[in-house]
Amino acid sequence: MKILENISLAGYTTFGIGGPARWLADAASEGQIAEASDWARERGVPLFVLGGGSDLLVADEGFAGLVLHVGLKGIERDGELFHVGAGENWDEFVCRAVALECAGIECLAGIPGTVGGTPVQNVGAYGQEVASVIERVRAFDLTTREFVELSNVECGFKYRRSRFNSSDRGRFIVTRVDYRLRQNGVPQIAYQDLKAHFAGWATAPTLADVAAAVRSIRRSKGMLLVDGDPDCRSAGSFFKNPAVTEEVAERVREYAESAGVPVRVFLVDDGLVKIPAAWLIEQAGFAKGYTMGAAGISSRHTLALINRNGATAKEILALAEKIRAAVEARFGIRLEMEPMMVGFA
Ligand code: NAP
Questions:
Q1: Of 233, 237, 298, 324, which residue is the catalytic one?
Q2: What number of other Cβ atoms are within 10 A of residue 246's Cβ?
Q3: Which of 89, 230, 264, 286 stands the most exposed, by the fewest C-beta atoms within 10 Å?
Q4: Per-residue confidence band for 268, with pLDDT thresholds at 50, 70 and 90
């Protein structure tokens, strides 16, 4: 396997930002995954596993270790169970499942990135999340140096979380994900955006209709990767939607009422209340299209910070901090950043 040196990472990310990887390897098989990780271990250099690069902010200084680009391909079908290589493009897999009339991921259409990234943050949108269809995850365990197969329960899925991005962060390299879909299942139409899209339809929308609707809604928000669209030079949502205590939510409701700006909040597990981060950001004084040098907020989605024209990671972080400070000052809520940070001290 070839180990390349000093390769710019900007082109590997949807943000288009980031300095060089000291070393970079492309792994197309499980054998190469093990080989590359041995190479890094023998030299004592840090390892970073790169998938689709859609949820990353890479430091301007780059990454002083080995970046392992996971390119494992292949989709095998066994009834309703799909074994999918971690390097497969996620949206292409969604298209394939929808075309085969298999339900369970139609609302996750148009999400950038690779299959291997989906269990890590339990990707979800429009009321669906991969945790509800993942049966098993195959991965290389960097601690035991063996390939393991983890059941759904062993993955520890929670809202936008799993053991892969929490308790066992950095321990596993996902090589394959097994999804159990529902042949001829009905599509999920739970969110307001989707309900509004289908209002007035005389016939029941199919899986393909729902996937197409999600794509068009995402496109309208600049959340579908389209070449040349400046609102797409981002890492998607830069902030997580915070889940707060009822007491904090009550303060937010009081503010909304007194300011005459209604807010829709949602009850989540553990009695917490989910508040749209986009609403908090707007109320803290940042509108869509806000700019700060070469960094900015998407003109179509308040949650997406964008690289307007040659922004550095430092500039993106400066804008993120400004937004966080303003939201915290107004609501006492500290927004969490969603993208993975690579190469920062
Ligand atoms: P949106 O549809 O404007 O929704 C804003 C917020 O309201 C989100 O927190 C969403 O929850 C919540 N919400 C809306 N309708 C709801 C309902 N019926 N029940 C419960 N909660 C509801 O959000 P957006 O920013 O344009 O994003 C569209 C979708 O893509 C959202 O589902 C969002 O979470 C998802 N997304 C996911 C990721 C990721 O997986 N990392 C990244 C970007 C966007 P939820 O967040 O729970 O859906």
A1: 237
A2: 11
A3: 264
A4: confident
Each residue of 137-169: b (16+ CB within 10 Å) or e?
Answer: bbbbebeeeebeebebeebbbebbbbbbbeebe
Does residue 100 form part of some domain? yes
87 inside domain: yes
CB distance 223 to 236 below 8 Å: yes
Distance 186 CA to ligand 1 centre (A): 21
- Residue 285: inside a domain: yes
Residue 246 pLDDT: 94
Would residue 135 show up in a list of annotated catalytic residues for this protein? Answer: no
Q: Which atom of ligand 1 is nearest to the CA of 303?
A: 25
Q: Whose CA is nearest to atom 5 of ligand 1?
A: 276
- Ligand 1 centroid vs 18 CA: distance in angstroms? 28
What average pLDDT does the structure give for the chain?
A: 96
Instruction: Find the mean pLDDT for residues 261-286.
Output: 93
* 111 close to ligand 1 (CB < 6 Angstrom): no
Q: Is 220 in the active site?
A: no
Distance CA 33, CA 343 (A): 21
**In the block, which residue shows the tokens 């394939």?**
96
Burial class of residue 299, CB neighbours in 10 A (0-12, 13-18, 19+) = middle
Summarize pLDDT for 32-88 with one digit per residue, the tens. Answer: 999 999 999 999 999 999 999 999 999 999 999 999 999 999 999 999 999 999 999
Q: Which helix (H) or strand (E) is 69 found in, with range?
A: strand 63-70
Per-residue model confidence as pLDDT tens digits over 196-235: 999 999 999 999 999 999 999 999 988 898 888 888 999 9
Structural domain range at position 110: 75-183
- Residue 293 Cβ inside 6 Å of ligand 1? The answer reads no
Of 27, 50, 70, which residue is a domain's last?
70
CB-ligand 1 contact for 192 (6 Å cutoff): yes
Asked whether the beta carbons of 70 and 87 are under 8 A apart, the reply is yes
Instruction: Establish whether residue 160 lines the binding site of ligand 1, counting it when its CB lies within 6 angstroms of any ligand atom.
Output: yes
Residue 338 known to be catalytic: yes
How many separate domains does the chain show? 3
Ligand 1 pocket member 274 (CB < 6 A)? yes
Task: Please tell me the distance between residue 55's alpha carbon and the centre of ligand 1 in angstroms.
Answer: 16
